[in-house]
Fold this protein.
Amino acid sequence: MGSFQLEDFAAGWIGGAASVIVGHPLDTVKTRLQAGTNYGSTLSCIRTVYRRESVFGFFKGMSFPLASIAVYNSVVFGVFSNTQRFLSQHHARESEASRSRTLSDLLLASMVAGVVSVSLGTPVDLIKIRLQMQTQPFQEGNLGLKPRAVALGVQPVYQGAVHCIATIVRTEGLAGMYRGVGAMLLRDVPGYCLYFIPYVFLNDWITPEACAGPSPWAVWLAGGLAGAISWGTATPMDVVKSRLQADGVYLNKYKGILDCISQSYRKEGLKVFFRGITVNTVRGFPMSAAMFLGYELSLQALRGDHTVTSP
């Protein structure tokens, strides 16, 4: 089946929605640790968010990613699968059912998916982070306000996703929606290489040769491990991206990627670039496991297959 296949996009949409629901609470903790202040450790951050904002604080800003990341992952998975399929057939002249996939085909398909993901994902991440960072600790740490002054005098800048988009476009122009795009490009292109390639090879390694395709358990495990690897290694540039995108909620501190790296290193040392690596890695497993399992099972249902088929 060498033709362009829309099923990959539909399955990616379902997988994306599943991953947002599973991963958003820890994504909020990750963002607060990386771009906020006065949170301390991961457990301290969780306790602080819960104490100040209740359980709903962990789901702050989820509506926009739920609506948009599903579409975003639909495009990413659709682009990767169709690109990989095209390259595999063009270079090796092998059928889609063949399990022999060259590393170069997977690498190029992952890079293409990464570039496409940045064009769609930068505005999504920007809105999500801006909404997540409207918190008392962020205001206290970055504006030097006392808690009482924050509680009484500083109102949230954004009333929701639509208001956030309108405010950014009005104050920063359309280019403002792509704040942090360079850092996201440096995070996502290698990040997707370390996402799809481990997934494919782990799937092949876990699945016995006698089986026509990987089992749901194999998909869950391979997807989770791939997500942990990808998110863990992406943490340094994820820190820079989060800081650049959170910058501008109340004030502007950074002039660009290099300035953000320089200021962060000067004030907090090398360890700042690994802030949130634990929560990133832990969060990466269930998010990616849900993503790939949702994708594969949806693709199986859409195609009427009885075995799971890797992207």
